[in-house]
């Protein structure tokens, strides 16, 4: 790595700070890799580096860094394309590279469907600034005012005579131009790439098997490690007999991993180091390990779920009260109550947790599929007693993550093994370890009691909630959800004038983590299911009933939510043939659901064929309103994927605990959806000028309730427990 | 054990334990990392390669069973990444994270080699063992149909 002083000088102008990416002190100096592989060619140090994200070569080849982590959601196409758009770069001349962990790229922790929400403007400003500098350089060459120049498709054009100079030719000159304080952005009608259906930049490498994931890094002298963890949270290693493992050919050592007492830290374990993964995995089985299982050794999800149900079917701790629920219930024409439950879920990305770490005396280098490089820098910095910035984190493509790789325990472990052995270490968790040492989606129960008035409108709504919250990771004393954890229920955009929420006890006995869509999974399920149940109770059409529930919302601050929710519901109904549903064949039904989460809106109409316990999903019409869309194809793909994940969790996937430990082990007893389950999915995108919001998660929430409502319409059977058809394990 | 295996048309002399699955020989010893580890138990299809042209789960195929056999991995499916399936995968923008896609493509290639115009049900049956957690199944099916159509055009 070398540092170009000229670039540092430029960067100290803190362009990024003015571009609104970060708070103070973000850009300390830009260090550019001297050699970067791009399309198999070496991209040498670039002459024009207007900011951390953009590097333009003399031949015009342009490198754009993506600071947010890519795990298949398409962010490394969507954001760099927005940069190229504002820069007037030719996308065909652009190579995208995943940025290393470095605060100069702004916040890199990738989750909460926040990348587009947070980075749309700053990334565009980075591109617009580059364009400004290229135009100013050309204006100098032509000795004309910059206003008489335009940029287009990798050239600056002289408006007076249509003369052109390429970006490459301008690169060195542009480097001497002062970056603008606040670059001007294009308007929607001027976009080249934003809003179009751009293919993923890396799909060519994917179909040829050339893309490097967390499991794929190869460096000289690499050793391979396999790991086993204590099966029960809070347990610890009592004894390990390493003899048989160490006697195996190719095994070099056995390393005990300590517990990392930090958020998302490794829970500790025992690892075997060998010449290859196979030998390491085989040797691991030869360890004789005894664990002290600790206080959670009786955790049993069947009993626990039954307890959660009791906790929500009885009075609990009041969170929020509005209006007069008591009077509403006393004057009810009809009352209806229902309890909804859901089990733990494992993210189970196709790529298990894996990373390569090399701890040297004066250097620590990490290659990891991660959603949070800065957290790796922080934790390993503490562990090795070095500055976080001394930990070099190369972010690889993640083979799926869904929230799991936000927690980088597998990187901490590889660092321990490397430090102890002196070798660069590739640690790959087995699928079984991935399944059994997760950060699970929360097991949950909700009980809703609602009253209907004379007109069949909802007059009162009592919502009791219990689930072990994510907050239990940070505070072990946590014994129930916080008020913030139930805010999504309290703020649900239905008009619930007489309302009370209550929080039931739910202490965590395993690690709870963010799973794609998080709490929206169960809030979406309960609200859209209950609305459907009440519609039938009131003798009303479910869509009409949903619209009335939204219309009853008098809160002026929620009118945008009401309008956008109703709009996508109407489109879903129309596109799916909901209004003609009376003519569906016997045994078929259409169900509707809508959910607002992560500031985006998704409605689904699911058509099923159902008889007895057989459920066949035929068609899904999915409508999204996420404001402006950056990449239509990426948005569509996210919804198709959300349907599949929604179907897995609605129908079949559940992590079960017995005696404190996870019972599931692999895809035979954690049966995710397969190709024959795939319905026809149609995605409809609302054309909008509103500021863009993310789509990584919001599509998951409405699927399960739309399915439950469809099955009820088809067969009269009501499913209130997720998954509907759990596998006995 | 010491044996000789042909991978992507090139002979490799290897000396590993005979019960070592082909997956790890490919990935760790020979550094063909396009073939992925997903489950280690033949349940997900991410590790699919061809053994004498037939789709095979490399994670449960011991090296000892492969003497004299010819292996094709994703890196060797075509000269320039232009197998009809690879082209169809790109035309349909199939991949999301992409981790399972090498296995999907290798499995589909084996299907098309024995059934040039598979029906929708035949595609489902053949591809049933390949999991995609991102949920790209709809596009996979379309891409396989498109590739079959292209192959039919080439033949006619």
Short descriptors:
heterodimer; A: 729 residues; alpha+beta; Aldehyde Oxidoreductase, domain 4; seven-stranded mixed sheet; six-stranded mixed sheet; 19 helices; 24% strand; globular; disordered N terminus; B: 156 residues; Ubiquitin-like (UB roll); DNA polymerase, domain 1; 2 domains; five-stranded mixed sheet
Secondary-structure map with pairings?
The complex is a heterodimer of chains A (729) and B (156).
Chain A: E1 2-3, H1 5-11, H2 15-18, E2 31-32, E3 36-38, E4 41-43, E5 48-51, E6 54-56, E7 62-66, H3 75-87, E8 94-98, H4 115-142, E9 149-152, E10 155-158, E11 164-166, H5 167-174, H6 203-207, E12 223-229, E13 236-241, H7 243-246, E14 251-257, E15 269-274, H8 277-286, E16 288-292, H9 301-312, E17 317-322, H10 325-330, E18 334-342, E19 354-360, E20 363-368, H11 373-384, E21 391-395, H12 409-421, E22 425-428, H13 431-436, E23 444-452, E24 458-466, H14 487-490, E25 499-503, H15 520-538, H16 542-551, H17 559-576, E26 588-597, E27 600-611, E28 614-625, H18 632-651, E29 657-658, E30 661-662, E31 680-685, H19 703-715, E32 721-722
Parallel strand pairs in A: 7-8, 12-22, 18-32, 20-21, 24-25, 28-31
Antiparallel strand pairs in A: 1-2, 3-4, 5-6, 6-7, 9-10, 10-11, 12-15, 13-16, 14-15, 17-25, 18-23, 19-20, 19-22, 23-24, 26-27, 27-28, 29-30
Chain B: E1 2-7, E2 10-15, H1 22-29, E3 48-51, E4 54-57, E5 70-72, H2 84-91, H3 101-114, H4 120-127, H5 137-155
Parallel strand pairs in B: 1-5
Antiparallel strand pairs in B: 1-2, 3-4, 3-5
